[in-house]
Amino acid sequence: MSTIRQEDFIASIADALQFISYYHPKDFITAVHEAWQREENPAAKDAMAQILINSRMCAEGRRPICQDTGIVTVFLKIGMDVRFDADQSVADMVNEGVRRAYQHPDNVLRASILADPAGKRQNTKDNTPAVIHMELVPGNTVDVKVAAKGGGSEAKSKFVMLNPSDSIVDWVVKTVPTMGAGWCPPGMLGLGIGGTAEKAMLLAKESLMDPIDIHELRARGPQNRVEELRLEIMDAVNALGIGAQGLGGLTTVLDIKILDYPTHAANLPVAMIPNCAATRHAHFTLDGSGPAVLTPPSLDDWPQIAREGGAAKRVDLDTVTREETASWKPGDTLLLNGKMYTGRDAAHKKMVDMFSRGEELPVDLAGKFIYYVGPVDPVRDEVVGPAGPTTATRMDKFTDTVLEKTGLIGMVGKAERGPAAREAIAKHKAVYLMAVGGAAYLVSKAIVGSKVVAFPELGMEAIYEFEVRDMPVTVAVDANGESVHESGPKIWKLKIESAA
After folding, report:
1. Residue 257's beta-bridge partner residues?
2. CATH for 151-285, among 3.30.1330, 3.30.230, 2.60.40, 3.30.420?
3. Residue 162: how many CB atoms within 10 A of its CB?
4. Minimal CB count within 10 Å: which of 45, 115, 440, 441?
């Protein structure tokens, strides 16, 4: 019999969430560095360089890898010989740990959780509650896996009920391109196979808690069908040429994880959940001897690399014209300087509602750029906390109206734009620029001024005015509606096929 003290349990959850907010696992850093070394597409290579540089900066500065600090998921295996010295339930202790972690004054994490999801969608202010999965097992310890899952990658989760004779590989290869780049590749794909619909999804999520080890598997060779599938799916997905951030390239996934479970003879449930470039998870065991101790990685684990951005063009956002933006081509790299505004889902909806009522906006966006971001609150002497881009496709349904009513000439976000947004961009001769998802702290260092100018009640979704200096972006959709996320993967898929 072991006794787990309430304070030890809570502190362990809180410490783990702080730890994973700024430390990538070593296996992830190694895998991205190896992919960076192999990459032949300059745009994808630069995206991975930004991810690696950002990761080292976060480890040094102990600030979040991504502005989306995630929804907390906890897997608990509680030994049947464990006793809790506590006056709170296990779920309440987990949530108290989340609350402490996300409100830590030295490293404030963004609260992204909304209650009443089909109604008022009010922020809970402390990122609670977590999603908790508990299992009673033999033993006298508590095994804990903690993850913080970003909304962009979680939004790309897929499920299918295949026929038993269908090919899982074929389904994955058909499905991954439909996920776009909003899950911020390169990352991992977790697959759950079997059980029932809800069991398959749970297996897929839990599979992502394991370290990257596909290279070891490839070296020793597969020993069962699941291991064969991991290799088959990884090779097939990377052959799609999607590449880092969807720009086209040799590496889309760093590993494929699979957990399976017995299923009904008539069914083949398959779930797929991606993990993004902000891979955040920790694993520890409590045995009653005190709180968990997580060992920080050595800074020697990070490669010393620099961006090769010599061809980037500096742009003055305060004087840029439509004539100038019309000369930009998909794939061009730019360094933004001057003032831009921010706005994401809630701000866009509020603007469109104001237009429908004939009301004027509290800020003039004519001739300006808007950045799709919800930043982390600043600490100490920061101008703003980590401020990487959010998925631009969520703003697609607002794009035509907002461009028409405001006179905006450009947008900045992550991932691709859909057909309706590209048509609106071409119609209004605007442009869409892409910042790297997974490089939020790096991007924040390019922001030298920040103030809320509209909708303060929306919290992190308010409209800010940012002053930026040499903020790195790539032209993703030009003024004619041509998209690098369309052309890039096609080009690199053909290159991969011809080299095979």
Report:
1. 190
2. 3.30.1330
3. 15
4. 115
pLDDT in tens, 221-234: 999 999 999 999 99
Maximum C-alpha span of the chain: 74
Give the position of tokens 């993990």.
Answer: 275
Number of other residues whose CB lies within 10 A of the CB of residue 485: 24
What is the C-alpha to C-alpha distance for residues 29 and 23, in angstroms, rounded to an integer?
Answer: 10
> What are the helix (H) ranges across 142-277?
151-154, 168-175, 197-207, 214-220, 225-238
Residues 495, 352 contacting (CB under 8 angstroms): no
Q: What is the mean pLDDT of the segment spanning 34-47?
A: 96
HSE toward the beta carbon, residue 36, CA cutoff 13 A: 21
CA–CA separation, 63 and 385 (whole Å) = 8
Instruction: Give the Cβ contact number of residue 423 at 10 Å.
Output: 14
Integer CA distances (angstroms), 314 to 44, 163, 168, 345, 440, in order: 20, 54, 46, 29, 20
What are residue 414's DSSP bridge partners?
A: 391
For the chain, the domains span 1-24+65-149, 151-285, 313-488
Specify the length of the chain in residues: 500
Distance from C-alpha of 479 to C-alpha of 425, rounded to nearest angstrom: 6
Show the DSSP H helices in 187-333 as ranges.
197-207, 214-220, 225-238, 322-325
E strand segments, 119-172? 122-123, 131-137, 142-149, 158-162
End-to-end CA distance of the chain: 58
Amino acid at 438: G
Q: Is 348 a catalytic residue?
A: yes
Nearest to 384 by CA among 310, 446, 298, 476: 446
Separation between Cα atoms, residue 408 and residue 129, nearest integer Å: 38
Hey, what are 363's tokens?
């800020």
Catalytic residue among 24, 33, 281, 348: 348
The reported pTM is: 0.94
Contact 473, 424 (CB under 8 A): no
Q: Give CA separation, 500 vs 97, 214, 235, 239, 286, in Å.
A: 50, 20, 11, 9, 49
Residue 158 exposure: Cα atoms within 13 Å on the Cβ side: 22
CATH architecture of 313-488: Alpha-Beta Barrel (3.20)
CA–CA gap between residue 351 and residue 360 (Å, rounded): 9
Tokens of 216: 């070891």
Q: What is the pLDDT of residues 404-459, one digit of tens each?
A: 999 999 999 999 999 999 999 999 999 999 999 999 999 999 999 999 999 999 98
